[in-house]
Amino acid sequence: MNTKSHPIPTAFDNNVFSALEKFDRRVYFRWDMTTDVLELHEPALPNSYDIAPRMARASTILWHSGLLHPEDATILRVYLDSIFCHHIHRPKGTCNHICKLRLRGNGCHEYIWSEIHLITYFDGFVPVVAYGNIRNIQAQKLWQQRIEREAAHDQLTGLLNKDATRLRITKHLASLSPDIDQEALLIIDADGFKEINDSFGHLFGDAVLTDMGDAIMHNFRQSDIKGRIGGDEFLVLFRNISDPEILHDRCQSLIRQLERRYKNGQQELPFSISIGVAQYPQHGTTYQELFKHADRALYESKNLGKNQYTIYRSSLLGQASVTSHRTPKDFEDFQQKAFKDNMIEFIFKLLYETNSPDATISISLGMFGKLFNLDRVGLDLYDPDTNQYTTAYEWLSPNGISLKSSERADDTFDSISMRNTLILSGYKATSYGVMSICEDTSKAADRYQPAMAALHLGAFAHCMITHGSDTLGCIGFEYSRPHTIDDECRHALSVFAVILGNILLTSYSDDKLRQQNMQLRSLLDHMQEMIYVVDKITMSPIYFNRSIRQALPDVNAGHPCYQVLHKRSTPCPGCPVLQLSGEGSEYIQCDLNNWDKDRPTCTRACNLHIDKIDDTRPLALVIQEPI
Q1: Is the pLDDT of residue 320 over 50?
Q2: Which intervals hold domain GGDEF (predicted)?
């Protein structure tokens, strides 16, 4: 009996690739950038996606048809922006992209998590064609989400853990309106838990915490946010309070449920809880404000005898939190030890408690100064307009000399200039970041020595502070005598620079950016022409000036400008925005007949370059004669 044999390939050929494609269940496609046509690999294999074999005007359909999950549409915008606009940093000839997003399933309204690999080919700087494949990663993503859910919950009680609680409450508070919503933040702390844990053992203590978590879970609604934020400390955001009596009843009910006595032979110990409450919006609208005030109310409950709840009031703010027998020096040593043991946690707690980046920076400088026996810690902010560094924050030991303009002597200006030159010339990339380090300034060139002596600068370590690609300034540790800069000091300096660049100094940058944008808006609003700013990829307006808002009071963004302004389903013939290159500075003018068919309207467009944080959209400014 003869068996039909199949040829065994000796190399990769079309049959091998076809077999692998069928096995992997990948969808391959080709996207012609010159015609904007996307075609699936032929013959198109059955797949799980609601994608037509051939898609004309692909970029528009991908953006507006709902094929992409609405939350993932930004990924398409970033890709188009990167290939049409950001050619300076692109490898010559091709550009590779990998992304994970959700695509609409075939024959249903559900979305499927997918991984897309894309290779884009260029003719010079012009994208010509892209080849890619789509792989279904739904099972992998669901497993990952399950792991993330488990990571967000406390294993002992099943409630949210500390970080997840803070993040969810912060996100929820940002969605509220102080004029409409009424909510409350509750900090719940056990009374006498340490004695029970020490006397009855950790296993019994875990059982008590589990019982406490279970009572909290069932005492509040599913919609409330409930978490364990410490050993025996819990947090609840009690949402949508229509009647203050409901808050009173919930607090009293929980207190009654958890009031009990535990016995072990002849030993008997009481157990109860204390609660501190801060109300939204009366006592704050942010997580930090509400937590600070609820924490103060909690201590008031403790001071009044425990086993009760207290709602925050302003008269509590000036009172001591708890009775303490520590002297000021003891408390200072305690703080310094806490800072040394966990510098990052200390800084973040300081930020939450003060709700002030300015105070957090000032206090942290002193902590670093004392921890490493420094003579000066200085934070200089960089001004790109003048290319100058200016001291904004400073801590000094008795041997330190101030470099702040308001405190320094006039004759130190030349010395400071030489000091800055020495520091800036020493910057280089290290494993701890971009740093400038000198452990003995007496070994520097002779021209620097008078300045080093005048400023009492014997050794220094400075680290650049950046946010994205922007330089915000530098942070420096300085000694009056030669000193070895060890790894612990370099690591601390590097970590603090990261916190400064990404958290503590961003508000400064945001304020400056906000002021610049307000000035620009004011200028555009006072012009008589009709002016709007449009996203070049989606053609959706993101700003209208006052002339448009007054002439067309019902106008709103969210759709392409040709639809919003001119009731068209396709772009206006001769639209100058479509004629703009990626990042060019050209100024294109044309006449359009959209407003008045009998009288053409002079329309001008140019690329708009505005420094915007975390926003890479290519924008165009459009100016039209008033109608």
Answers
A1: no
A2: 181-314
